[in-house]
Structure formats: C-alpha cells, structure tokens
Design brief:
Blueprint: E1 6-12, E2 25-30, H1 36-44, E3 62-67, E4 71-75, H2 86-102, E5 106-114, H3 121-132, E6 137-142, H4 152-163, E7 170-173, H5 182-192
Bound molecules: guanosine-5'-triphosphate and magnesium ion.
C-alpha cells in the first residue's frame, strides 16, 4: 500500500471512545519496548507519529491511526514491563482483553517479537490468547538489523517453534531501521482487508 495520509484519531481507554467506523483495523501486540510504535512509524513513513521511547512503557492508551482514510492501525501498550503496579497491570489486562475480544473491525493482530531472542513466556501467552479467540495473527520478527542476515532463518525457526505457530499465520523478518519486510508486511495486511 502506498501511504498518502496518516493521522492519529484518538487515544482511547474504553470502547465508547473507539472510532465508530466500519473500517478494517489491525492492532499491535507485543512486549514493552519491542518496537510496536516503531513498526507503525515505518509502515506509515512517519518519523514521530507513534511515540517511541528508550524507556519501556511509552504507549499507555489504545492509539488509533487512520491510514489513507481506509484502515486503522491501533498502537497498544506493551506487556512484560516489570516496573508497573499490580493495579496498573490489571487495568492493562482489562483494556487489552476488552479490545481484542469485542472489536468487530479487527482483521488481524500484529504480534511483534524480537528476532534476536526466542519469544518470552509472555509472548507465548499473548499468542495463545489471540488464538483462543480465533484472531488471525501476523508475526513481525523485528530488530533484524541487529543480527547478521545469515542468522535470520535460524532465529526465525526458533521463533516459529517457540510460539507453536499456526500454519495459517504469517511471519515476517522486519526492521524499523532498514525497512526490511515492510512491503511484505503491507501485502499480507492488505490480504486481510
Ligand atoms: N535497531 C533497531 N531498533 C529498534 C527497532 N524497532 C524499535 N527499535 C528501538 O527499540 C526501542 C523501543 O521502540 P518502541 O517502538 O518505542 O517500542 P514499543 O513496543 O512501542 O514500546 P512500548 O510503547 O513501551 O510498549 C526504541 O529505542 C527504538 O528505536 C528496529 O527494528 N531496529
Ligand atoms: Mg509504543
């Protein structure tokens, strides 16, 4: 997809605030600091549209982005950040669960994992949660620029095996630094629209 327009439409914490349109939607999921917001910026060719931080926990709300007036991306706060209270963690869980289990416009979840390391227990749990609700997943194995190209396939295999990846789900080697995987990611997302 050639992105000609993109803008944030709302930062939501509850369903009443979700945009009331029937546009197809893709929501990000992944560990805190894994690169969800960076993925969105790269896909949209926008440097600072989705907020990025060197500190984990930057994204706190469900941030809806409207693209070419035809679809939404939803940036989602990450999991696995140690420095959050039990109360915050419970609020996060409720917000994520409500969104993923009720949003009819959701075409697929985009689960971001770090290609360098095997998926964490939280990653596996997130993937199992999405599969439990029959939500199609596109796995983005990001930060590929940080390991040599010759090792990508080996790491990809570990990622697939650790997640016990469903045969119907796609997995893409990605880098928000170099743009590796961007065209492939767009063509797969378009196939879900
Ligand atoms: N080298 C490299 N760094 C990346 C890549 N993607 C993200 N980063 C860096 O990783 C850090 C976290 O990126 P974010 O996009 O803010 O991560 P996030 O998943 O949105 O984090 P939260 O909002 O805290 O959940 C930043 O310092 C990014 O510059 C990548 O593909 N390659
Ligand atoms: Mg973020």
């Amino acid at each position: 997809m050639k992105v000609v327009s993109s803008d944030i439409v709302i930062s939501a914490v509850k369903p009443e605030q979700y945009p009331e349109t029937a546009l197809p939607e893709f929501a990000l999921a992944g560990r805190s600091n894994v690169g969800k917001s960076s993925f969105i910026n790269k896909m949209l060719n926008r440097k600072g549209l989705a907020r990025i931080s060197s500190k984990p926990g930057k994204t706190q709300t469900l941030n809806f982005f409207l693209i070419n007036e035809v679809l939404h991306f939803v940036d989602v706060p990450g999991y696995g950040y140690a420095k959050v209270s039990k109360t915050e963690r419970a609020a996060w869980g409720k917000m994520i669960e409500t969104y993923f289990t009720t949003r009819e416009q959701l075409k697929a979840a985009v689960l971001i994992v770090d290609l360098r390391h095997p998926p964490t227990a939280d990653d596996v749990m997130m993937y199992e949660f999405l599969k439990h609700y029959d939500i199609p997943c596109v796995i983005i194995a990001t930060k590929a620029d940080k390991i040599p190209k010759g090792k990508w396939q080996k790491h990809l295999k570990v990622t697939k095996e650790t997640l016990d990846l469903d045969a119907n789900d796609h997995i893409i080697v990605f880098s928000s630094e170099t743009g590796e995987g961007k065209d492939k990611a767009w063509s797969i997302l378009e196939s879900y629209m």
